[in-house]
Amino acid sequence: MRILIVEDDAALASFIRKGLEAEHYAVDAASDGEQGRSMALEFDYDLLILDLNLPGIDGLVILKSLRQRKPSLPVMILTARSRVEDRVQCLDLGADDYLVKPFSFLELSARTRALLRRSHLPSESVLAVRDLRLDRVERRVERSGRRIDLTTKEFALLEYLMRNAGRRLTRAMIIEHVWNLTFDSTTNVVDVYINYLRRKVDDGFSPALIHTVRGVGYEIGPSGAAA
Questions:
Q1: I want to staple 20 with a disulfide (CB 3.0 to 4.6 A). Which of 25, 97, 110, 225 is the partner?
Q2: What is the pLDDT, as a whole number, of residue 227?
Q3: DSSP characters for 99-149?
Q4: CA distances in angstroms from 144 to 81, 126, 147, 201, listed in the order given
């Protein structure tokens, strides 16, 4: 799942980002209101963590704009404003949660999971391809009931493959969605990470689920073009 942090305190944004990435979330960050609003409207996110006191555009303005354009996007307000009036105003404007600074990362993490569970139906939060299951909310992967430990990037790659099960994905599509980069034909990062995944997801299991599509890229499914 992909989370956007809009926070002008670089150290705090980095702290939150590293913590969430350690829990296998894909995380983007914006340091001012204009950039944050633009990213939130342009890209698809599963959660927005939004500060209120931002340079350029205030967080309340961003919240109002998002509720008009993306009413279903979960928004967690993260702010030093602790007055009840501020909480009520944000919740009335459509915020889904409100966390006051300073805060415990454990609490932020728990609130993040709660918001993601609330915003995704069970059928959307758990992806399955045969005996391979990926829980997008709990960040858990199992095959044949056996837990598989993945790095943050491996998890993001597997999630993208499984969300597009049976579809042939080019290397350019994969690197754009998983790494948020423009494809460079000289890099083999996609192939390297596909090999990492195969060792964990396919080795020791039958049948193999990750397939190479010659001249195209990769696909995941019970059958496909053999490597």
A1: 25
A2: 41
A3: EESS--HHHHHHHHHHHHHHHS-HHHHEEEETTEEEETTTTEEEETTEE--
A4: 48, 15, 9, 10
Average pLDDT over residues 14-41: 91
* Number of residues that make up the chain: 227
125 or 155, greater pLDDT: 155
Q: Locate tokens 């204009």: which residue?
A: 34
Residue ranges per structural domain of the chain: 2-119, 124-220
Q: Which position has the token pair 């493959």?
A: 161
Question: What is the torsional sign of CA 12, 17, 20, 21?
Answer: negative
What is 2-119's CATH topology? Rossmann fold (3.40.50)
Q: How far from chain centre, in Å, is Cα 120?
A: 13
Please tell me the distance from the alpha carbon of residue 35 to that of residue 127, in angstroms, as a whole number.
Answer: 32
CATH 1.10.1240.10 fits 124-220, yes or no: no
Integer Cα distance of 46 and 4 in angstroms:
8
Give the 3-state secondary structure of residue 187. coil
- In this predicted model, what pLDDT tens digit does every residue of 68-110 receive, in sequence order? 899 889 999 999 999 999 999 999 999 999 999 999 999 999 9
The pLDDT of residue 34: 94
